[in-house]
Amino acid sequence: MGEKLSLRRRVYNGTMTVLVRLGAVLTCGLLLFLIGYIFYRGIPGLSWEILTTQTSYIKNTVGILPNILNTLHIILLAMALVLPIGVGAAIYLTEYAKSARLVRVIEFATETLTGIPSIIFGLVGMLFFVQKMGLQAGVLAGSLTLVVMILPTVVRTTQESLKAVPQSYREGATGLGAGKWHMIRTVVLPNAVDGIVTGCILAVGRIVSESAALLYTAGFGMVLVNFIDSLHTSAATLTVALYVYATEGGETALAFSIATILMALTLIINLAAAWVGRRLKNGKE
Question: Which residues contact 236 (CB under 8 A, 6 or more apart)?
C-alpha cells in the first residue's frame, strides 16, 4: 500500500511539475511573441524624422515628438505629486494609525479604487478638474486624474513593504534612543525601498499605458509646446496618439511604431527605477 501511495505521489508531483513548467514556458513564449511581433512591425517604420518632428498637414510631415514629450511631462508631474502623498499615507497607516477600524476602511477604499475602470476616472476628472475647477484640458488635468488612479497602487505596495520590515528593527532603533520619525526615516524606509520602487514601476506602467482617462482630461493635441504651456493646452500622449492614428487615421504602421516606442520607454523607465532603488538601498547599508 505504501509503495502504491508513493508511486501515485511521484506521478502527481511529476505531472504538476510538468504543468507548472509548461505554464511558465507558454507565458514567456506569449510575451516574447508579442514583443517580437510589435518590434517586427514597428521598427521598420521608425525614423529620425518621426522622432524629432510634429505632425503637420501643411508640410506633409508625420512626427510624434510632441507625444513623447507630453508622455514624459505627465509621468514626471504625476509621480512628483503621488509619491509624497502615497508614501506618506502608507507610513501613517502602518506606523502612526491607532484605530484598526480606520485602517481597514482606508485599505478597503484603496482596494475598491484599484478596481474601478479607468474611463470612470476620466469622466470624473473631466467633470471635477476641467469643468468644476476650470482647468483647461492638458498635462495638469491629466496628471491630477492619474494621481487619483495610481494613488491606491502606491499606497498599498508601500504599505505592504513597510509591514515586511521586521519589528525587531524598529525595537532596536527605539532602544538605541531614536525617535519615531528618525527610526522610520533611517531604518524602516531604507529596508522597504524595494517595495516602494515596485509601486513606482507599477504606477509608471499604468501612466504610460493609459489612454481612456487622458482622452477626457489631457486631450488630443499634437502641437509641440513647452512644459508650461502644455499644462493648460490639449496634449496627446503616446497612447492617445496611437489610438488616434490606429482608429481615426487608419495608419497601422505608424501605430506599431508608436507601440515600439512605448515598450522601449517602459523598459528604460523600469530599469532606471530598479537602478535607483538599488543605489538607495546600498547607500543606506
Answer: 66, 67, 70, 214, 218, 219, 220, 221, 222, 244
CA 142 vs CA 41, 42, 74, 117: distances in Å? 30, 27, 7, 16
Q: What is the pTM of this model?
A: 0.83
Task: Report pLDDT digits (tens) over 26-76.
Answer: 999 998 998 899 889 888 888 888 888 887 777 777 888 888 899 999 999
Residue at 33: amino acid letter:
F
169-186 pLDDT, tens digit each: 887 878 777 778 888 888
CB atoms within 10 A of CB 178: 16
What residues form DSSP beta bridges with 64? Answer: 54
Q: Which pLDDT belongs to residue 47? A: 84
Sign of CA dihedral 248, 253, 258, 259: positive
Full DSSP string of the chain: -HHHHHHHHHHHHHHHHHHHHHHHHHHHHHHHHHHHHHHHHHGGG--HHHHH-EEETTTTEEEEHHHHHHHHHHHHHHHHHHHHHHHHHHHIIIII---HHHHHHHHHHHHHHHTS-HHHHHHHHIIIIIIIS-PPTTHHHHHHHHHHHHHHHHHHHHHHHHHHS-HHHHHHHHHTT--HHHHIIIIIHHHTHHHHHHHHHHHHHHHHH--HHHHHHT--------HHHHTTS----HHHHHHIIIIIS--HHHHHHHHHHHHHHHHHHHHHHHHHHHHHHHHH-
pLDDT grade for 1, boundaries at 50, 70 and 90: very low
> Residue holding cell 504602421?
253
Q: Tell me, what's the pLDDT at 249?
A: 65
How is residue 246 written as a grid cell?
Answer: 490606429
